[in-house]
Amino acid sequence: VWALCFLSSLALLTLVCTNRIQYYFLYPHVTKLxxxxxxxxxxxxxTFCNLNEFRFSRVTKNDLYHAGELLALLNNxxxxxDTQTADEKQLxxxxxxxxxxxxxxxxFNMLEFYDRAGHDIREMLLSCFFRGEQCTPxxxxxxxxxxxxxxAPRFPD
Length: 157
Fold this sequence. Notes:
Number of helices: 5
Number of strands: 4
Low-confidence stretches: none
Mean pLDDT: 83
Shape: elongated
Structural class: alpha+beta
């Protein structure tokens, strides 16, 4: 009797497993799609990322003196740390700016530096349309981010 029950259970298990394996390889799927037409979309959050935090062309000798180490352009002894990998033209400009002989540093303001040397949305925004209207640099505002200020859109909801 026990052998009959065991064999019956084993046969039922094999039948169910075989059925499920066959069903799996049929790759059944159900796709349900509900479309809702939105009358007014909210402008998405947009972040402009740039590995170069500051425009090198806008960095002055005074900026370099006060923030050269922070910008990784100078070491703590006001020297250019790695000249082998630098572009020759950029290196020449940097060497000229890093010559602090007879230089009298002026007061330094980091916010003024960000405003002057940071990236400008007017130079970055090439084309933008939202709700059928053209976006302009005035539609963006600068927000504070962990690595400094940057442009963010400001559209009404």
